[in-house]
Amino acid sequence: MSVIKNVVVVGGAGNVGRSIVKALVEAKFNVSVFTRQDSPTNIPENVAVITTDYTPASLLKCLKGQDAVVCAIGPGPGVAGQMEIIDAAVKAGVKRFIPSEFGGNTQTETSPDFVKLNGVKVEVINHLKEVATASAGFSWTGLSTGVLFDLVLPMGFLGFSIPAKTATIFDSGNAPFSATTLATLGLSVVGILQLPAETSNKYLCVASFTATQNTTLRALEESTGTTWAVKKQSAEETLIAGRAMLAKGERKGAGMMLIGTLFKDEGSEKVTKEGDLANELLGLPKENLKTTVQNIVSA
After folding, report:
1. Average pLDDT rounded to a whole number, residues 264-290
2. How many angstroms from the chain centroid is the CA of residue 96?
3. Could you give the strand order of the β-sheet that contains 209-211, starting from the edge strand earlier in sequence?
């Protein structure tokens, strides 16, 4: 398989996209990002900005000469828009497509709530499989990271408020989950593109470490030198409330459903086994919860 050099990142101005762009630039790829005409950008000077209206003709023109496309589109309708980008990428001669996964494993997770929230991602992977089978020279790689830890922890998504030093612990707080840092996500994308043959048409999983709410709380208390105020909450009740909100069209309900699914004691195993991780293949560094939390607190 030929070398990949020219890479375009869709959603490169977002939190996830910027981490990927940074890693690609440091690895000496020729990096571009897609943006709409009226979209603000926060892109490094050495990264090309390509304006597109995301119509098929515009996408085809903008993708000419690109070896790979990395989608870092956030949750919402944009995820479904990857279908058009994939079809244009094939026509433009793109060699590798990395879709916007970067979360739970959409290929193995079967809980109805997870499937409801991530069904479009499954459809995107299925479309990639079909297109890769029919199109010589085109391939894809899916990447599951588990929780993007240093992105969501400061936001309070995991039940912790760092400024207030308070914690909401769901059920026992012992439900384990795989977590990955943004830096390791970026390095994972680099590794995939530097090993095109080894990663072709595969769904890979990476993780920086395994955590629970309780181990995260202990790390936060140690890093801040303070005992935090803790309240308990039912994951099931959070899940039910989230379903009701989503049914009314309130997007906040999706986040509550994810929290309820992630931290529910029963059937809550959200950990990729070490033997199923691609960390070694992709040359990822060793990381741990304690140091990561210290870095977040001191940032």
Report:
1. 88
2. 18
3. 147-148, 177-180, 209-211
Question: Which amino acid appears at position 234 of this protein?
Answer: S
SS3 per-residue string spanning 182-198: HHHHHHHHHHHHHCCCC
Whether residue 77 has pLDDT greater than 80: no
Composition of the chain by helix, strand, coil, percent to 5: 45, 20, 40
What length does the chain have? 299
The 10s digit of each residue's pLDDT in 234-248 is 999 999 999 999 889
Report the candidate in 27, 68, 286, 51 with the shortest Cα–Cα distance to residue 180. 286
Type of residue found at 120: V
From edge to edge, which strands make up the β-sheet containing 30-35? 48-51, 30-35, 6-10, 68-71, 96-98, 139-144, 202-205
In the chain, the amino acid numbered 264 is: K
Token pair in block for residue 140: 């894809």
DSSP 8-state class, residue 167: E
Secondary structure in 3-state letters for 206-260: CCCEEECHHHHHHHHHHHHCCCCEEEEECHHHHHHHHHHHHHCCCCHHHHHHHHH
* CB 155, CB 162: distance < 8 Å: no
Provide the 3-class DSSP secondary structure of residue 65: coil
pLDDT in tens, 204-229: 999 999 999 999 999 999 999 999 99
Structure-block tokens of residue 130: 């079909």
Amino acid 20 reads I
Residue 268 has pLDDT above 60, yes or no: no
Strand order in the sheet with 166-170: 160-161, 166-170, 229-233
pLDDT at 252: 87
